[in-house]
Amino acid sequence: MWLTSYLSPEASDFYDIHEKNLVKTAITFFNGTKDMQIPYQQLLPLASNDKIKIVLLDGFKHREANQKMDNLLKKVIDLLD
Predict the structure, then answer these.
(1) Distance between alpha carbon 17 and the CA centroid of its chain, in Å?
(2) Are the beta carbons of 17 and 42 closer than 8 angstroms?
(3) What is the rounded distance in angstroms from the CA atom of residue 53 to the CA atom of residue 61?
(4) What DSSP character marks residue 79?
(5) 17-64 pLDDT per residue, tens
(6) Residue 16 — pLDDT band, cuts 50, 70, 90?
(7) Exposure string (b/e) for 2-38, b if CB count within 10 Å is 16 or more?
(8) b vs e for 39-78, b when ≥16 Cβ sit within 10 Å of the residue's Cβ?
(9) What is the pLDDT of residue 47?
């Protein structure tokens, strides 16, 4: 599981880590509002932690990769410049 690669071997359930207030680093989740594999509503309970940021991508599905994503990335890059 990806959590064990980035956090610790005990990080098998992120919600449990969140409940125990063990999130010690800033984490940003990007999720599409039309993602049916991982609905964004699953992330909302995590929003109470000030280290966790949730960015919803309006109209995006799971693993969106097309002109819509290219346009979004261009806007983000332009904002950072």
Answers:
(1) 15
(2) no
(3) 19
(4) H
(5) 888 888 888 888 888 999 998 888 988 888 888 888 898 999 999 888
(6) confident
(7) eeeeebeeebeebeebbeeeebeeebebebbeebeee
(8) ebeebeebeeeeebeeeebeebeeeeeeeeeeeeeeeeee
(9) 84
